[in-house]
Specification:
five-stranded antiparallel beta sheet, about 140 residues, 5 helices, single chain, alpha+beta
């Protein structure tokens, strides 16, 4: 399963309200499009940052201007492409600011970068195909 972490600007309750509004009648986890599993992870009571490299956490802290203690974690099933769905979730979750981290780069992605198709080290946001092609020969 591939994963993306979203660190939306604003309060956790506002993010929960957005998820509830767009994915009604479900919670913990929310579920979308036969393959996106959406939940909130918390640093104090969950596993957030437990397997993150300290340099990635430092990049995140610098990008958002403080150390976030919670995130929306989305697991994307290998049964689906997931690109359109994860971009849709980015638009919802980052509409008022914040950043996302995917499995393929060590970059805090803004919504503007995601929507524009910006590249970092030759990869776009959630560019599993490009990453797979790059690592195929290893």
């Amino acid at each position: 399963m591939r994963s993306v972490f979203f660190f939306p600007a604003g309060e956790r309750a506002s993010t929960v309200a957005v998820l509830d509004r767009h994915l009604p009648a479900q919670r913990h986890p929310w579920y979308l499009e036969d393959g996106l599993y959406i939940d909130i992870d918390d640093e104090r009571t969950g596993c957030l940052f437990s397997d993150w490299d300290p340099a990635e956490v430092a990049l995140l802290d610098a990008a958002v201007g403080h150390h976030p203690t919670w995130a929306v974690q989305i697991g994307i099933s290998g049964r689906i492409d997931g690109t359109a769905e994860i971009r849709h979730m980015a638009a919802l979750l980052l509409a008022h600011g914040g950043v996302a981290f995917d499995d393929y780069t060590e970059h805090p992605w803004t919504l503007r970068e995601i929507e524009s198709g910006a590249t970092v080290d030759g990869l776009r946001f959630f560019d599993f195909r490009g990453y797979r092609e790059r690592t195929r020969g290893c």
